[in-house]
């Protein structure tokens, strides 16, 4: 039986807090890792269309569910919001047991945050006019228009913004704007404003891997653009997309029965 959303997050947090595998489990994990690497080595040289991203992928990126290890300097506006944000997962020095992460009330993660949770697959569905990223996490999707349209000049702000892409050789360049300022950029609680824009560059470097680079520009929140660390989508054909919804009633029950009691105990 699959863990509920909140229980899965708690499992990730527990692992990061210092729980370790038994020797037998470690050996099994090593064997599985070796098998996965052998499979990747065998398939990496298969023929592929560099303009075709269709398939199910797993995200691999910087630790900490973020764009990179360090954010650029924040403006006073962003620093005040960052100081007020109290994450439930992420950097150990930022975690607050009774935090105020908007995801804990089932608010959408927004973009780019939803991309960073590599425990959950993303399926790419591609047509001549658009690329759709369908996220298992929160069971939601994002559309990247590739039909030549420009970004709207005054879009209605939304959780996932408005995205338009074009090809530069074998690289899909995606520009996005029209974000509202309600989600966090990452699990650490970095904010963004409704002035945020993103440029993403996707390149299928071999059969199994799509490299990603991202630049976040938000003059209201950061004094310079935020450039990502190395990020990859890795082909994962054995993954199955699941209905991974965040139901407010389930989240409230988990809050009352698990998270709040644990938070109060940890604060004693």
Biggest pleated sheet: 9 strands, mixed, barrel
Distance between the termini: 34 Å
Provide the structure class: alpha+beta
Uncertain residue segments: 1-22
Strand content: 15-25%
Total count of helical runs of at least 4 residues: 4
Strands, total number: 10
Shape: globular
Structure, described:
The protein is α+β, with helices and mostly antiparallel strands. It has one domain. Helices cover 23% and strands 23% of the residues. The chain contains 4 helices and 10 strands. It has a 9-stranded mixed beta barrel with strand order 1-2-3-4-5-6-7-8-10. It starts with a helix and ends with a helix.
Give a brief description:
The protein is built from 4 helices and 10 strands. It is α+β, with helices and mostly antiparallel strands and 268 residues long.
List the helices and strands and how they pair.
Layout: H1 5-17, H2 23-43, E1 55-60, H3 76-84, E2 122-127, E3 130-135, E4 140-145, E5 162-168, E6 171-177, E7 197-204, E8 209-217, E9 226-227, E10 231-235, H4 248-266
Q: How would you describe this structure in keywords?
A:
alpha+beta, 9-stranded mixed barrel, single chain, disordered N terminus, 4 helices, 268 residues
